[in-house]
Design a protein that fits this description.
This protein has helices at residues 30-53, 56-73, 85-105; strands at 5-7, 13-16, 19-22. By secondary structure, the protein is mostly helical. The longest helix is centred in the middle third of the chain and has 24 residues, at 30-53.
Length: 106
């Protein structure tokens, strides 16, 4: 099932089913965005699996992955359009470093 997704004129938001969500930072290089989205998908999947298993520690860990990925994508935290590019780059690099470290710890 495909949803209609609109972007606001300023490009800051997307609208899905009438609900507004912050858009991904458009300055993200494609490879970086792909890696962050991979972490996001794994985190979201992990939340579901952990909830079904009743493992609250695993739910928290999966939600941490989701949060880090969404910060890296620019969808949480300070609005990407209010930050200089250097700060935005640092944010996505830090997020990827922290996310990759989660895999190293596993």
């Amino acid at each position: 099932m495909s949803r209609d997704v609109e972007r606001t004129d300023d490009g800051h938001w997307i609208v899905v089913d009438g609900r507004r969500w912050r858009a991904t930072d458009p300055e993200l290089p494609d490879d970086v965005a792909d890696r962050l989205r991979s972490h996001l998908g794994r985190g979201r999947s992990g939340v579901g699996v952990a909830k079904k298993a009743g493992d609250e520690d695993a739910v928290a860990a999966a939600r941490e992955r989701v949060g880090l990925a969404k910060h890296g994508l620019g969808e949480r935290g300070d609005a990407w359009w209010d930050l200089p590019l250097e700060d935005r780059r640092r944010r996505w690099e830090d997020a990827l470093r922290d996310l990759d470290a989660l895999d190293d710890d596993a």
